Amino acid sequence: MNKEKEHFFDKPGNFKKFLGGFYISLILLIVIDFFVHKHPYFAWDGYPSFYAAFGFVACVGLVLGAKYILRIIVKRREDYYD
Amino acid sequence: MINAIPPAILFILGAFFIPFLRGKLRSAYLLILPVIAFLNILNMREGVYWTVGFLDYTITFGKVDKLSLAFGYIFIIVAFIANLYALRVKEAGQHMSACIYAGSALGITFAGDLLSLFIFWECMAVSAAFLIWYGKTKDSRAAGFRYLLVHLFGGLCLLIGAVLHVYETGSIEFGYLGLTGLASYLIFTGFGINAAFPVLHAWLPDAYPESTFSGTVFLSAYTTKSAVYVLARAFPGTEILVWIGAAMTAFPIFYAVIENNLRRVLSYSLINQVGFMVTGIGIGTALSLNGTVAHAFCHILYKALLFMSMGAVLHQTGKINATDLGGLYKTMPLTTIFCIVGAASISGFPLTSGFVSKSMIVSASGYGGLYIIWFLLIFASAGVFHHSGIKIPFFAFFSHDSGIRTKEPPLNMLLAMGIAAFLCIFIGVFPGPLYSILPYPVDYVPYTGAHVIDQLQLLFFSALAFTLLMLSGVYPAEIRAVNLDTDWFYRKFGKAFMWFCNVPLTGLRLGVQNFSAGAIKSLTKFGADPLLIPEIITRYTVLNIYQILAAIFPSQRFKDKCAEFEFKAGRMLKITQSGRVYGTDLPRRPIGLGVLLSFIFLFIYAFVYLVFIKR
Predict the structure, then answer these.
(1) Most-buried pick from B10, B500, B547, B607 (CB within 10 A)?
(2) Which domain holds residue A29?
(3) How many other CB atoms are there within 10 angstroms of residue B515's CB atom?
(4) Interval B214-234 mean pLDDT
(5) Residue B481 burial (CB < 10 Å; 0-12/13-18/19+)?
(6) CA-CA distances (angstroms) from residue A30 to A24, A45, A47, B442?
(7) Taking the mean position of all CA atoms in its chain, how far away is CA B162?
(8) Residue A2 placed within a domain
(9) Alpha-carbon distance B118 to B116, whole Å?
(10) In angstroms, what separates the C-alpha of A55 from chain B's closest C-alpha?
(11) A21 to chain B, minimum CA–CA distance in Å?
């Protein structure tokens, strides 16, 4: 480990830059959304940033559901079946 | 058909030459076999070929139309990629199993009748079980047996359904069935087990992660997708498939979030992706069926790519649990890039294959006004990005540095991943060739401004959720654990059944055995000396009579008699224990008497039968 070359994410600055770029792209997506002509299947999926909101809420729900409901029910010791 | 031979025969017979080849010759053979098969399939025109008369029926090995051709192409392409990836595997048997497995899937694809379909179906189950057993661990042995039992059950459902169907319709032909009666329900269940329908799915995440680093690549391609093919052939537009498919897209992603074994995470996401295809079959419009075939085509490539990248990690480090991995991008940059391409494709990023295929199914649900299904599919799209798109590359290659320093996998594995990654992006950028081989004419434009921006928003804000949950520490930590699934029922039931056999049932058997052994022993003893029985009976009866008389009339005479007969009975007991043989000095009946008695009984029986019963 002593002579190993430094990799991209070893520098804390790079991780921050990466996150910064990510946040900027999020804002850009929201802004561009207003200028795109939509052709929704239903009413609600034509609202601006519907997909952004849905993606965020769905994933938070997914993780919380998996962590606080499913894992409580199904988690067993690693040697459960042995 | 002129000049072409059934692809299944090519692979299955071709497999038997593998053990006779060594070194570079075997490598060359393994690569040339799929190439020949591909040239062969290019030579196949639509129609019905290779029919063989069998009893009163016609077996068809070549029902060639656009649907079967599309699956045929991709099955052969992935056979080439997976064979290239597995070139360095030493065991000839593993290559053989893989080739027979691929050949069976091709046999199913071109089967025009239920009998050959069933035979290839069983071949596929057995060869896949061997691929699992080649994992050569205690877990893979057990998982292989469970896999085989589940699939033999599915095969039986298919067989019974097929026999009933032939009985009812008189036709052995395999085509559109629809859910009409018991026969079709049984066939549907048989297909459903291979397609990993909810509740019937547990064999998949149970067995696939236990195979070898390369075996899982084959497994991920054929069993579920051939099931998708037969469902698309026999049950298009069956409404219940819409709901089954939507459930399949939604529930596995919860498991994938908490699962530690990264190949098991991929197994759950496999069910999720097959769910999209099953939904497409259920909707049953030209767009949705096109979407199903296109998605199966793309899915086989990117799923193989993801399993190859995780196989490379397993091959190089010997580890596959998220808890043991991390920071591998430093030493495996190419594998990292290939994995990210696969992850982007499965998530449906624009310019990757998943975008141009999955969106057809989602659009079909939207045009059909199925808003609940549409919501579930969008939710599943976000979810699959979350666990396959981010979790897989993040925990294997980034995350905390595990300190593991390794190298890139061998060249053949990198090449296999490279080809798959190239195809994922090529199809994403130029969907035209893929759309041209779909069963129905394609009138679908994936790249519209709205569609691209909607998909990007969905994915980026899912990523935002992951980032925020990760940074805040809410994201569930990876834990070494077993997560119960529906296989609990048969695994625990199996154990309970074995206990029932070993403890109460064996106890009952021992009891019966001891009782009958004792009975036989005493019967033998009396049988060797039949006169003992009347002797004992008379002696003890007389003794009992004198004892009763002695009790009623207390006189010396009876007491003497009692003592005398007690002595005689005691002597009798001694004779019993001494093992006296039925000697020549003892009186016996002539054999003729026995024969006469049996004649008399036979006469009585015949008399009763003839006079009273048979009238």
Answers:
(1) B10
(2) 8-74
(3) 10
(4) 95
(5) middle
(6) 10, 14, 12, 31
(7) 19
(8) no
(9) 5
(10) 5
(11) 12
Helix (H) or strand (E) holding B208: none
Lookup: tokens for A26: 């999020």
Torsion on CA atoms A49, A51, A56, A59, rounded to nearest 10: 180
Cα B257 from chain centroid (whole Å): 24
Does some domain include residue A27? Answer: yes
pTM of the entire predicted model: 0.85
The total domain count for chain A is 1
A3 located within any domain? no
The mean pLDDT of B4-13, rounded to a whole number, is 90
- Type of residue numbered A6: E
Query: Which residues in chain A are closer than 8 Å to B490, comparing Cβ atoms?
Result: none
pLDDT level of residue A2 (50, 70, 90 thresholds): very low
Collapsing DSSP to helix, strand or coil, B9 comes out as helix
With beta carbons less than 8 A apart as the criterion, state whether B244 and B254 touch: no
> What residues 246-265 of chain B have any CB closer than 8 A to a CB of chain A?
253-255, 257-258
Q: For residue B492, is pLDDT > 80?
A: yes
Pairing of strands B47-54, B57-64: antiparallel
Q: Tell whether A64 is covered by a domain.
A: yes
Cβ proximity of B265 and B376 under 8 Å = no
Take residue B173 and report the two structure tokens written for it: 């032909």
Task: Quote helix, strand, coil % in chain A, to nearest 5.
Answer: 65, 0, 35
Instruction: Report the DSSP beta bridge partners of residue B482.
Output: A76
Question: What span, in angstroms and rounded, lies between the C-alpha atoms of B581 and B569?
Answer: 19
CA dihedral (B179, B184, B188, B191) positive or negative: negative
Q: How far apart are CA B29 and CA B22, in angstroms?
A: 10
Q: Which amino acid is at B203?
A: W
Q: Which of B253, B259, B454, B483 should we substitute to test contact with A (largest number of A Cβ atoms within 10 Å)?
A: B454
A36 Cβ under 8 Å from any chain B Cβ? yes
Note the Cα B582 to chain centre separation in Å. 64
Q: Is B615 helix (H, G, I), strand (E, B) or coil?
A: coil
pLDDT 10s digits, B73-116 = 999 999 999 999 999 998 999 999 999 999 999 999 999 999 99
> Nearest chain B Cα to A72, which residue?
B483
Class of residue B593 by CB neighbours under 10 A (exposed 0-12, middle 13-18, buried 19+): exposed
State ipTM: 0.91
Cα separation of A42 and A33, whole Å?
A: 17
How far from the centroid of its chain's Cα atoms is residue B505's Cα?
29
Q: Which amino acid is at B141?
A: R
Nearest to B456 by CA among B341, B375, B343, B355: B355
Interface test with A, best of B253, B254, B399, B493 (most A CBs within 10 A): B254
Note the maximum CA span of chain B.
Answer: 126
